[in-house]
From TrEMBL:
Coiled coil: none annotated. InterPro entries: AB_hydrolase_fold, DUF3141, PHA/PHB_synthase. It comes from the Bacteria. Pfam families: DUF3141. This is DUF3141 domain-containing protein. Gene3D superfamilies: alpha/beta hydrolase. It comes from Duganella levis.
Length: 746
């Protein structure tokens, strides 16, 4: 109805003629949206059916070449190494370290790390690095194990390193969700093979969390342990259906699963259809795992929590101890992630290290970043996250690789006017819209996130014991019967009948009831009449939708509260704990075992470094001076601008070659240990590293001042330390000629 300004009564919302017109407009729009929504569901179903027929379906948007096929290895697996091609055809810089993106095999297919241009893979390619991807096929190789996958990943990493002999640094690994803990296992078994690790939304401490949240961690206890995992594997004739994992994820948020996801498309059918189809292309194609693989994951990780306890062994008896990882570890998590909350992403650090001194002594560098709101999948696929966090991590990877041992938090600062002016004066020291800082933290910062008390730890330990008992009973008495009744045909029929797959098949071209939908949808698009936003019936629809969401959310909250109460009550019973053999002394139910050989090697290395305070040359002197300044309280954060200043200065080795990241890392680590163990001796011997020529010493001091001041004017103790270094580097200070890093004379 056209607006009549001469008669306001006609435009009054209560006018029956106005309401009638709004009703007519709304029902036309609603009918059209219904047809278009049905067509979107049909397209989704057809896409799923098409992909189910493919050998290796994926959602990568980048062209690639197959480098290694894991099915051809001595111990075959259904994984493969792909080389991602640069979209613009420009070859990456051969001196830049390669990146390898590992996608999760947690129910879904591969490709989410490169699903969009603004993605982890897209960021790496944009930065000019060689990029590789590790994906997998839907069907596992019979008999393959998690250990076999780790072995294959090690071979993939070695192959990438072999293909890039000129690269300055070992391959950097990005592991999403399940792939995160898997590359940690691989790195613990092959510590000299890998470069920095980025763990995105990866759970490593499965018991961790806080009460009132994180209900997924209670699932093992509510189900009585992992015997149902064994049952599912038997019913699948040795195959575990990844659709069951996807179903567990969906049950966590029933309002989204049952209503919001589909309603969002229906209500915004003109703008949201393609985004929905792109996501469902990945979500709707669950993959399969060997029953043995899933049983290992459920027993050792989900319920047993043995990875962060350093309690896992490989088939050769080697302990899978995350403390053996030598490369820096970047943990990227989010408060909005209900699948891998920050406590589960970071709790393993507290499990493995009693205090900060143990972390530093172990040579471990751990950097964490916590997004305030992004959800689990957004960590991998959000364009905003890719263009900020992942872009900054990629740009700063060389800096991350040389960071001294310790715990740091990555902080992203928006560039203000002062920073921009400083860049103009000093050159572009931080690309992009942000400046990344690594601020020193202690383990108390992780404890402040919240977590289990001793009583909660005992409850989860009780679950692990109960799980072993129930699984043993099932495998002894019920499993042989179930296996005798299952055939490959019945297992396949069961998988196809899973509700996750049925909802795709039901709304596809296989359903004859939808035969007329494509033609009808085309007609609707040609005659589309969207309703006005202020339509009273559209507003009623929105209000009704909100009520549905609120009701389902209330159901979820009540369900989760009941789950937690049952868990706490049942597994907190002293009687049950005693029956499963837990001590009643009230102490911790688990303790991380010591690795005497590793501790001895670490102690020997630190002692050897402490004796080298008189060895080195000009580069070592500069690094030692800078580290001494950065040990002040005012300089408790490492800034990418300072590292960029170092790289721009092109430090040289003793044989006058440009310093590589690997060489710089070794020098930084050694000088840091010297200062940590005996700062006074390290400073006293610093003049012995300096050349006799006053001009060279003055130039070296200029480098120290330039790098130390890259983030701003030094104040307080930092300024005092700089002046002390200036006195040492000054022409009047003691001198010692150094040739090829060895003392010549005093």
């Amino acid at each position: 109805m056209s607006e009549d300004k001469s008669n306001p009564w006609l435009n009054w919302p209560g006018n029956p003629f106005n309401l009638a017109q709004q009703a007519s407009d709304y029902w036309i729009d609603a009918a059209q949206r219904s047809v278009l929504f049905m067509d979107v569901l049909r397209q989704r179903g057809d896409e799923r059916n098409h992909r189910a027929e493919q050998t290796a379906p994926h959602v990568l948007t980048f062209a690639f070449d197959v480098v290694m096929d894991g099915r051809q290895l001595e111990r075959p697996v259904n994984y493969g190494l792909l080389h991602i091609q640069q979209p613009d055809g420009v070859q990456p810089d051969p001196t830049k370290r390669p990146f390898i993106v590992f996608d999760p095999r947690a129910g879904h297919g591969p490709g989410i790390g490169g699903m969009k241009h603004d993605s982890e893979i897209g960021v790496v390619l944009k930065a000019g690095h060689p990029c590789y991807f590790v994906g997998f096929t839907p069907h596992p190789v019979p008999g393959q194990t998690i250990e076999d996958v780790c072995r294959a990943e090690a071979l993939f990493i070695a192959k990438v390193a072999e293909l890039h002999p000129q690269a300055d640094g070992k391959p950097a690994l990005i592991g999403n969700c399940q792939a995160g803990w898997q590359i940690m296992m691989t790195s613990a078994l092959n510590p000299d093979l890998v470069g920095p690790l980025v763990l995105a939304g990866a759970p490593l401490s499965y018991w961790a969390g806080v009460r009132g949240k994180n209900p997924l961690r209670y699932l093992g206890g509510i189900l009585g342990g992992t015997w149902m995992t064994a049952l599912a594997g038997d019913l699948g004739n040795g195959i575990f259906d990844g659709a069951q994992l996807v179903e567990n994820f969906e049950k966590m948020n029933p309002s989204n699963t049952l209503w919001s996801k589909n309603y969002n498309v229906y209500s915004k059918i003109d703008t949201e259809a393609q985004r929905f189809l792109d996501f469902e292309k990945w979500w709707g194609n669950p993959v399969l795992l060997n029953a043995g693989e899933m049983q290992y994951i459920a027993d050792s990780l989900f319920v047993g929590n043995r990875l962060s306890d350093a309690a896992l062994l490989d088939s050769a008896g080697h302990r899978i101890d995350l403390r053996n990882v030598k490369s820096p570890i970047v943990v990227f998590c989010s408060w909005g992630d209900d699948i891998t909350p920050p406590q589960q992403a970071l709790g393993w650090v507290l499990d493995l290290y009693e205090d900060d001194a143990a972390l530093v002594a172990g040579g471990q560098t751990i950097i964490y970043s916590m997004h305030q709101s992004i959800g689990h999948l957004g960590i991998f696929v959000s364009a905003s996250v890719a263009n900020k966090e992942h872009e900054e991590f990629t740009a700063a990877m060389d800096m991350i690789d040389i960071m001294p041992p310790g715990l740091y938090e990555a902080v992203f600062l928006d560039k203000d006017e002062e920073m921009l002016q400083a860049e103009i004066a000093a050159g572009d020291l931080a690309a992009g819209d942000y400046v990344m800082r690594f601020e020193r933290r202690n383990l108390d910062a992780l404890r402040a996130l919240g977590g289990n008390d001793v009583a909660d730890e005992r409850r989860f330990a009780t679950v692990a014991r109960v799980s072993e008992i129930n699984k043993g009973l099932y495998q002894t008495f019920a499993s042989p019967i179930v296996k005798s009744l299952v055939t490959e045909t019945s297992a396949e029929q069961q998988r196809e009948a899973h509700p996750l797959r049925r909802r795709y098949t039901a709304f596809s071209s296989k359903n004859p009831l939808l035969n007329n939908i494509p033609a009808l949808a085309e007609k609707v698009r040609a005659e589309r009449r969207p309703v006005a936003k202020d339509n009273v019936f559209l507003q009623m629809q929105e209000a009704w939708s909100k009520q549905i969401v609120e009701s389902l959310d209330r159901y979820r909250d009540i369900r989760d509260q009941a789950t937690e109460s049952i868990f706490l009550g049942v597994y907190g019973s002293p009687v049950l704990q005693a029956l499963v053999g837990l001590s009643t002394d009230g102490g911790k139910p688990r303790r991380i075992g010591r690795d005497i050989a590793r501790e001895a090697a670490t102690t020997a290395n630190r002692a050897a470094a402490a004796l080298k305070t008189k060895e080195g040359g000009l580069t070592e002197a500069i690094i030692r001076g800078l580290l001494y300044i950065f040990r002040s309280p005012e300089m408790s954060a490492a800034d990418e601008r300072a590292f960029a200043a170092i790289r721009q200065l092109r430090l040289r080795t003793s044989d006058d070659k440009e310093m590589s990241v690997t060489s710089l890392k070794q020098i930084v680590r050694e000088q840091y240990v010297m200062l940590q163990l005996n700062e006074a001796a390290a400073l006293a011997d610093l003049p012995l590293l300096l050349p006799e020529e006053p001009e060279a010493r003055t130039n070296a001091l200029g480098i120290v001042r330039q790098v130390a001041g890259a983030t701003g004017t030094l104040v307080g103790d930092a300024a005092t330390r700089l002046e002390r270094i200036a006195d040492i580097f000054g022409p009047a200070a003691p001198k010692l000629a150094v040739v090829n890093g060895k003392k010549k004379g005093a």
